[in-house]
Q: What sequence folds into this?
């Protein structure tokens, strides 16, 4: 099958792009388009060219997999110039998601017809880039400056209706792309559609537009995109040159490397060994436990259109759960995800009861009760008796042994961990924890469920904390060590927020509630190795009843929306230093980030080494979608690749001079450095 095919219908030449899955403008499409236009220009029978695409969408952009590879001619900017310079008018019919290079192709044609449901956008900034095939120069010649600047710098798509109103589309139709293309070609022949060459139109970005965008545009990526758009004031050929220069600069940036990796991470995680197993159809859901987590999970299932039965122990807890879910759905109305009618219809699908036998017909039951093995064992023993055969029995535990939980049932093949992140109806990550006896069908069904819930599912093996919390438990200690050694906690938070985390680790503890970590530390005390350093500052804080936001005080003091540093924390730190004979020293912000990241990368490498995660990119996805990891770094192991693995090893070895127990170079990291490989090489292998 050729990526581009031509067919004559009288004087209209239909040119079809067919490059599944998303018709990306890879080399075959580019060559095909150039050849088609060249041949049709010579064909006297043809008066109009109508360009469209097969499948679910018109071209969704340049082929991202080609980025970073040696360039293949013709490049997309040249293809666009050839389309724009065509001796015969080209009308382009757009459907699905016409994005990036796809929209740039359309901008270079002489007329554009949309098909209802179409979305159009220039999402290049989401990849750390800017439109690089004339988008920053041609779009402002077709639409008003403010619209063009918004699309170029935000990356957000607009609807077909908005595009029609803005003048980006000449017409909007309903129907099959091939039929609409033929009709559009005939409209051009009949002069019902007037072709225009975008290059001949005036740029519509004004000085005022630029001033207002300069005032609000933040960050290297958007600023670079704005600069390119500004060049549309120049003659088109000069503007295109400036766009190319800035695009090349963006391509070499770390932000692009990280963001491209994040794009692929979201998709790569669905490639699992169980992909070919038959996934069951899940129509109805059950949730046990109506606390924040259970109610959030129930909300997520309801928002995916599933009827849900929620079980709580006491009647007042049942009422609380229903109330929480109602509030969650109200939030969805406020965010524009539901209207009032849909909210009511969704709530009508919820049953809250104390009677566990109501779960008998559920296709999937997710347990979200108190984190205690005894409680979980009891719940799963009951589920084994109540639930129908073939139902998925899932635990939302965040660290307990899924194999032990499965072991109390007569059907461990149907038991799996589905670890949601709070708030469960908002956070995108779902860790799918596969036990030793979990059947491939159960795994495949869980991934299908995640898709229905619009979550990013990542496959994890069984270990304490699975992928995310295991790594978190390790690197979180590095912040306590730095705090004891002299770095004020607010400096640590600020340095990491500056690096790109939405919140520093101490602010996160305050938000989550410090009592949770305190309970865990007490539980672990008996098993803590003698060589391990232990920092007591957080315990002192908890002993005062200062658990964070919910008690008005923690590391910070909270006053409505404002927070200030709790000065007593520094006193606790100093007292512990004096007791342990430690002299406080200062840390630079860069050192704080280096240590924190080295600790995170160490445990992440061990998680890959232990085969808890399938690939390094799975760990990256966990952190991007569940832990607020800065997207422009692409995840902890992509950060390690960008920084250089040898540099990370060298840092760990340097820190190990003061604490050889905590700072150990993982074997995998050392092997990669010795072999001159990166984590991304492992992604390609696996
Ligand atoms: C650009 O255009 C630069 C130009 O300005 C200048 C050039 C000089 N390339 O998301 P899905 C794959 S930058 C290659 O699951 P959906 C994807 O990896 C580009 N592959 O489907 C996945 O593969 P797999 C600007 C691509 O229906 C499969 O297609 N454009 C590309 O949920 C299915 O994808 C963008 O940034 C691509 N461009 O969503 C648009 N796109 O099955 C990026 C997708 O092996 N794409 N794949 O894992 C999207 O936003 C979504 O894919 C889309 C479909 C909305 C189109």
A:
């Amino acid at each position: 099958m050729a990526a581009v095919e031509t067919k004559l219908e009288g004087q209209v030449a239909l040119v079809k792009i067919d490059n599944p899955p998303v018709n990306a403008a890879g080399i075959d499409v580019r060559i095909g388009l150039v050849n088609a236009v060249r041949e049709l220009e010579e064909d006297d029978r043809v008066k109009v060219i109508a360009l469209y695409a097969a499948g679910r969408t018109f071209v969704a952009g340049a082929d991202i997999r080609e980025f970073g590879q040696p360039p293949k001619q013709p490049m997309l900017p040249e293809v666009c110039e050839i389309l724009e310079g065509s001796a015969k008018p080209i009308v382009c019919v757009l459907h699905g998601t016409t994005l990036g290079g796809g929209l740039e192709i359309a901008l270079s044609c002489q007329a554009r017809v949309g098909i209802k449901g179409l979305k159009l956008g220039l999402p290049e900034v989401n990849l750390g880039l800017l439109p690089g095939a004339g988008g920053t120069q041609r779009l402002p010649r077709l639409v008003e400056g403010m619209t063009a600047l918004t699309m170029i710098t935000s990356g957000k798509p607009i609807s077909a209706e908005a595009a029609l109103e803005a003048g980006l589309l000449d017409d909007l139709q309903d129907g099959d792309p091939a039929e609409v293309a033929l009709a559009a070609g005939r409209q051009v022949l009949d002069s019902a559609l007037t072709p225009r060459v975008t290059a001949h139109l005036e740029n519509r970005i004004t000085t005022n537009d630029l001033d207002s965008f300069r005032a609000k545009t933040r960050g290297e990526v958007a600023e670079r995109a704005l600069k390119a758009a500004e060049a549309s004031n120049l003659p088109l050929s000069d503007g295109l040159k400036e766009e190319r220069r800035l695009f090349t600069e963006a391509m070499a940036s770390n932000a692009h490397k990280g963001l491209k990796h994040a794009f692929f991470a979201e998709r790569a995680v669905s490639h699992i060994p169980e992909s070919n197993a038959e996934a069951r159809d899940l129509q109805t859901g059950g949730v046990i436990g109506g606390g924040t987590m259970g109610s959030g999970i129930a909300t997520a299932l309801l928002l995916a259109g599933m009827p849900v039965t929620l079980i709580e122990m006491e009647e007042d807890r049942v009422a609380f759960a229903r109330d929480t879910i109602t509030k969650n759905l109200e939030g969805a109305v406020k965010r524009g995800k539901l209207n009032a009618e849909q909210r009511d219809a969704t709530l009508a699908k919820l049953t809250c009861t104390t009677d566990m036998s109501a779960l008998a017909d559920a296709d999937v039951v997710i347990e979200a009760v108190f984190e205690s093995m005894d409680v979980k064992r009891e719940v799963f023993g009951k589920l084994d008796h109540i639930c129908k055969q073939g139902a998925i029995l899932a635990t939302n535990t965040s660290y307990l042994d899924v194999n032990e939980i499965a072991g109390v049932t007569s059907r461990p093949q149907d038991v799996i961990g589905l670890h949601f992140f709070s708030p469960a109806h908002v956070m995108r990550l779902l860790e799918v924890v596969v036990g030793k006896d979990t059947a491939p069908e159960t795994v495949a069904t869980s991934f299908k469920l995640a898709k229905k819930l619009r979550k990013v599912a990542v496959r994890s093996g069984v270990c304490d904390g699975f992928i995310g919390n295991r790594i978190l438990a390790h690197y979180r200690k590095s912040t306590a060590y730095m705090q004891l050694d002299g770095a004020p906690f607010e400096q640590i938070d600020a340095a990491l927020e500056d690096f790109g985390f939405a919140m520093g680790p101490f602010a996160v503890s305050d938000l989550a509630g410090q009592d949770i970590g305190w309970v865990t530390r007490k539980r672990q005390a008996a098993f803590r190795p003698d060589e391990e350093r232990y920092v007591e500052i957080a315990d002192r804080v908890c002993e005062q009843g200062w658990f964070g936001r919910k008690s008005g005080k923690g590391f910070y003091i909270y006053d409505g929306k404002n927070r200030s540093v709790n000065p007593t924390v520094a006193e606790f730190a100093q007292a512990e230093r004096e007791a342990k004979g430690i002299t406080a020293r200062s840390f630079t912000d860069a050192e704080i980030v280096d240590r924190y990241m080295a600790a995170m990368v160490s445990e992440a490498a061990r998680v890959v080494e232990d085969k808890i995660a399938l690939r390094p990119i799975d760990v990256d996805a966990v952190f991007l979608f569940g832990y607020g990891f800065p997207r422009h770094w692409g995840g902890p192991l992509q950060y390690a690749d960008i920084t250089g693995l040898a540099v990370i090893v060298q840092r760990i070895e340097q820190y190990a001079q003061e604490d050889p127990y905590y700072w150990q170079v993982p074997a995998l990291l050392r092997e990669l450095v010795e072999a001159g490989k990166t984590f991304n090489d492992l992604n390609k292998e696996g």
User: Anything to note?
Assistant: The two ends are 29 Å apart (CA to CA).
